[in-house]
Amino acid sequence: MNGVKVEKFGPFPRVNRPVFIASALLIVGFIVFGSLFGELAGEVFSQLQSFITHRFRWLFIILMNVTVVFSLYIALSRYGDIRLGHQTEHPEYSLLSWFGMLFSAGIGIGLLYWGTAEPLYHFMSPPMGQAETVEAAKQAMSISFLHWGIHAWALYCVVALSLAYFHYRRGLPLSIRSVLYPLIGQKIYGKWGHVVDTLAVFGTMFGVVTSLGLGAMQINAGFSNVFGIPNNVPVQLCLIAIITAMATLSVMMGLDKGIKRLSDINIVLTVLLLGFMLFFGPTQFIIDSFIENIGNYVSQLIPLGFWSEAYSNTDWQANWTIFYWAWWVSWSPFVGIFVARISRGRTIREFIFGVLFIPMLLLFFWFTTFGGSAVHMELMGNYGLIEAVEADYGSAIFKLIEYYPLTKPVTLVIVVMIMLWF
Fold it and tell me: Which of 327, 63, 36 is nearest to 206 (CA)?
């Protein structure tokens, strides 16, 4: 496979043995350490996270802004006409299927977990100004858009574009090692390539376990609301085991029969749920605020994008914005490889604009429809949504749905979406 030795390893026909073994040992060691020394592990990882987010926040801020500038430059330059594949190729997947897989891989569970909770949290505890005011509401939406907006997608875009270009135009492996080809050349096929791929797998684990943990808790919260199932760790572990088995089956079925179909279903459910919320919710407010929220986000993009809390002594940004930046970085190898895999035949310009803006606009509309509506309700009166966020972030969306018709059926739809995204 283009110079990278792959072997049949158990039921898996194409596995890079050194990378697989090294990654497995690191992950198993991490699991054993966390299981046997839970309290110590929690303290170590907490201290490590605090050190990284406080000491290297400047590096994350520079990285995220550079990816935005670089992506837009490449898209608007003459390089934008280059096609990822033969110059006469057509895209492998339709725009709708491509978008569905792109959206599902890049966001997934986090959308349902944070879509309602995050704007509410920033509304009740803003980093600047007075809480639970109109200004706090506007700030909450701008910050939520910052965390889920162009910076995250630009990072995915740069990683995915690098992989897609070297794979489809230069014939290199579709793995993270190929990104380093301009720096180390043929050495990507040796130990340095193995090290890079192993670190990518290990780093991705941190992003995956965070998302899966949030998803399990939210599914448990939904089942608890509908069926009265206990909301505790044993139930969540069972859910993780069952859904992981389903996810493995989906992967083994292949891209077209498994992941593509799940992504198509998810995008349809997403549009239907948004339509339901728009019709039965504060329709005029959602439409008006969606436009205003985008304007506020664009006007604050540079100040918020370069904000580093240099003139304050709080840990707010380290706990939120920098945490998100680190989360996106940990996800970028997985998402980058997947997005590159589904993007054969598209021009670089089409690829960049599609990755940057299509999912982002749908995300913004989702946050406005769910989070913005929840904030609007709290401005109008005490609906208990803030208390729900304080108790459990994952239950915020279910608390919001209680004020809409067809509460239980809609709750089940949300749980199904979380499971599919899982």
Answer: 327
Tally Cβ neighbours within 10 Å of residue 86: 11
- The CA distance from 375 to 117, in Å, is 10
Helix, strand or coil, per DSSP, at residue 13: strand
Sign of torsion over alpha carbons 315, 317, 319, 325: negative
For residue 301, name the pLDDT band (cuts at 50, 70, 90). Answer: very high
% of the chain surpassing 70 pLDDT? 91
For residues 367 and 297, the answer to whether their CB atoms sit within 8 Å is no
| Nearest residue to 202 (alpha-carbon basis) of 419, 27, 392 | 27
Termini Cα distance of the chain: 30
Sign of the Cα pseudo-torsion (121, 127, 131, 132, in order): negative
> Is residue 348 predicted with pLDDT exceeding 90?
yes
CA 273 → CA 74, 124, 395, distances in Å? 35, 26, 17
The dihedral through the CA atoms of 79, 328, 369, 229 has a sign that is: positive
Query: Is the pLDDT at 16 greater than 80, yes or no?
Result: no
**pLDDT over threshold 60, residue 226:** yes
Task: For residue 83, give the DSSP letter.
Answer: B
> Residue 104 and residue 362: Cα distance in Å, rounded?
12
CB count within 10 Å of CB 272 equals: 11
